[in-house]
């Protein structure tokens, strides 16, 4: 049977990325508290395609994914990328995994436990250079929080508009950084964390704590930046903070990136 | 050229709806203030398919849509449905149109003008019965508003959590009901309307007004219901109110439907 | 601390549904092959609210969900609904759960194994009437398939346009119906199932099998209907078939519902 | 009334972007055929925030947008950015506009006219450097097309799987490039364009033409790259090609970027 993908292309146009996008897959992720947790992910896998090949063999990506049984840790990300490098004639390999991640959280007063979901992702790549393979990984979290508007509080005789917001942190690091660490930084950078379960005492505490700590989207981005700057493991970061403004039908946005 | 769609099907299974879904189309909608406005819509068009036909001719839906040049009013909805009835061998025809609708709105104190966008839709159908054609139309609006939590305000020494919410109203009526009327009902049923443009004076006014009128999702649904019950033109309604809770990562929801 | 939700409302407007929407939660679902599987769900929980109460206690929904630890089977759906009925002063309770469901599938020629993801959901409710509680459940699946156009094949000298489509089946039944059964019915009703992993031999087989079985969206809806009509357990069904037409930027749609 | 945004921040963290995101707005876009067309857009507007300011004045973005009445051309993009530069104490300003764009298209055989919708966007920025302001603009289009798989055609005795795909082109140029030009390049790079309205003769022609020109996602990306490389106006491009594979539930992807 003819291997069409392997046929020659003479246009001299290399492709930076070819691969599969949006594969849904059950995975097991490292969990600081419980060692590991089950969740479900959307997976993208790409390699570069040298100019002389017509196409890539898309089924091989799925085979590699299957061989690793959906286990996802920094170590396994590297293994999967290495498998991609050896199965394809390529110089770079990319693996992107995005999933909901769950952490048991105690309500601030009652201590009532419930699971909070966070949007998490890993964007890893391996790059073959003359001096050896370079592994790169971005760890990302999207953290829902409450934000109380400082301007609204200051100028109003009573109340202050507030809203659900998302703080997004992406980092590159020289040593393991847990999702839990980034989530904690994001939650501490906001007017208040949000919770899945709050009893009446908790709702009072969260309302007052948030009202006592009004912050702009700009403040949240800077609060996170400040923490990440101090962390010796972090070599690059991008922070985004997006308020689903309760008084508008559009969002307020702030972004800070390390130099 | 063979007409495959027209071939016979002998399984005796009529289909309630066959047609096209998700056609994006520029339309002109009736506007109470400016007579008409330009916007863009997603359009669905269906007819029923008698048991004995294998398929329908999907291109005819687009031809009918083209002949009406994207003009959308109650009258034209009826015309389009009649054209569908005459072009297809069918007993019912459905036309669904969803679009952003823009209204110029003055900020409460400064009077600063800006455009607010509302999600609007029309779900129309024509049904051929022995006693003649029956035209049915549901008018729908999705209205972003601010909601301040009464429980949070009551139990807290200061502040109150609030959030962007959506009030959805769908009605059937015996006489013309403007989108503007339903939007006004929704905005009056909430802690406060939202605005695209608010100067500092406006922000103070909106914050205080909302704080002075704390309402649950349940209250908003009832406030709207009360208004619709009193309106003699309205023969059916469904109201939904959904708060993007600022202290949770999930929503609070309430729904009321007329008997 | 005042219980605001419990205060009296005198407008005499009962609400059909109040509750929480969009809680993300890790769940364990019954699996015909492996007894159970881990996945993640979006959960909605509602009860009706009698006219005389101002609001409902949203945190109780989460507490009930937590007590059942995310185990989802027909039995547990009923248990959760009963817990809702006993914790709230209500006459109806609704529980809606939607999740990706994974099935290991062998490629048609090579037998290569891989996981296919299906969109699945359970819409359950409990209704208190004078003659006792009535449990109702809709089981739903969204199944990706390939559809080859019979008209395009018939009129063209070579080739035939085809596309990814989704067949959606929703049923009510008197006895357990597995997701696997509905998925199998959907896949058999299409030109061909789709697969996550296909080697070259498989791709040839799938291409030819699909080309040999051209079907309209209408045919798929009828093929499924025929199977469901014959099944004594099924007391209600709705089937939808939606082709992401490869020659258009809109979809072709067909729907059949039992009488 | 205190200007909280203007208060001093002493953490020495400048923010690269602060502003508003997701404002829905009716706009008028330049149209090669009809001079201009009405459509609706999602608008983002950002400026950088010097380290010493606590926040930005979000309402000013909306005021600037209003002053320009939603007219969008290269000239007006520049005007809006200049207005942002003069209203904010900033060194960079960003304006992002995304909208459906409609082009009347004739079916290949019947010549039947209909409107095709394309996803279009403009990402513009102005950057104040010592040597003057630098205007930068990325023009983007997302073009739906049909793609027939060359491998499937080659190895199968009959038929070939095909699917709706999206070719995304983004360019920077030294002179005006029309959306129509990029759309034409994308449509010519695929197995076939797609159409909103096709009569039976057209469907035959499209099916056969596509079958006669099987192409991988990789080929489409290269076909577009080839055209853009030859165009002296184009100084940067990124091309993406994504097939909604009809035999899989995931997509095939290829990307090429200029050096």
Could you characterize what this model shows?
4 copies of one chain form a homotetramer. Chain A has 259 residues and is an alpha+beta fold. Chain A has a single domain, classed as Urate Oxidase. The first copy, chain A, is built from 6 helices and 10 strands, in the order E-E-H-E-H-E-E-E-H-E-H-E-H-H-E-E. Chain A has helices at residues 58-67, 74-87, 150-155, 179-188, 200-211, 217-230, and strands spanning 15-31, 35-49, 71-72, 92-106, 113-129, 132-148, 162-173, 192-193, 234-243, 251-257. In chain A, strands 1, 2, 3, 4, 5, 6, 7, 8, 9 and 10 form a 10-stranded mixed β-sheet that branches. The radius of gyration of chain A is 22 Å and the shape is elongated. Chains A and D meet through strand 1, strand 2, helix 3, helix 6 and strand 10 of A and strand 1, strand 2, helix 3, helix 6 and strand 10 of D.
Key structural traits:
ten-stranded mixed sheet; 259 residues; Urate Oxidase; alpha+beta; homotetramer
Q: Which helices and strands appear, and what pairs or packs with what?
A:
The structure is a homotetramer of 259-residue chains.
Chain A: E1 15-31, E2 35-49, H1 58-67, E3 71-72, H2 74-87, E4 92-106, E5 113-129, E6 132-148, H3 150-155, E7 162-173, H4 179-188, E8 192-193, H5 200-211, H6 217-230, E9 234-243, E10 251-257
Parallel strand pairs in A: 1-3
Antiparallel strand pairs in A: 1-2, 2-4, 4-5, 5-6, 6-7, 6-8, 7-9, 9-10
Helix pairs in contact in A: 1-2
């Amino acid at each position: 049977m003819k291997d069409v993908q392997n046929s020659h292309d003479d246009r001299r146009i290399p492709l930076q990325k070819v691969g599969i996008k949006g594969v849904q897959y059950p995975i097991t992720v490292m969990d600081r508290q419980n060692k590991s947790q089950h969740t479900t992910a959307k997976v993208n896998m790409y390699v570069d395609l040298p100019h002389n090949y017509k196409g890539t063999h898309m089924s091989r990506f799925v085979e590699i994914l299957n061989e690793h049984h959906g286990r996802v840790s920094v170590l396994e990300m590297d293994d999967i990328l290495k498998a991609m490098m050896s199965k394809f004639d390529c110089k770079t390999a990319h693996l992107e995994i995005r999933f909901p991640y769950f952490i048991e959280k105690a309500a601030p007063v009652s201590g009532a436990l419930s699971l909070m979901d966070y949007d998490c992702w890993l964007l890893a790549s391996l790059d073959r250079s003359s001096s050896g393979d370079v592994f790169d990984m971005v760890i990302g979290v999207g953290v829902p929080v409450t934000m109380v508007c400082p301007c609204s509080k200051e100028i109003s005789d009573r109340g202050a508009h507030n809203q659900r917001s998302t703080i997004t942190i992406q980092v590159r690091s020289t040593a393991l950084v847990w999702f839990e660490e980034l989530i904690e930084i994001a939650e501490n950078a906001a007017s208040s964390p949000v919770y899945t379960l709050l009893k009446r005492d908790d709702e009072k505490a969260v309302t007052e704590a948030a009202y006592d700590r009004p912050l702009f989207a700009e403040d949240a981005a800077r609060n996170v930046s400040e923490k990440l700057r101090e962390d010796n493991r972090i070599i690059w970061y991008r922070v985004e903070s997006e308020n689903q403004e309760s008084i508008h039908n559009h969002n307020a946005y702030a972004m800070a990136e390390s130099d």
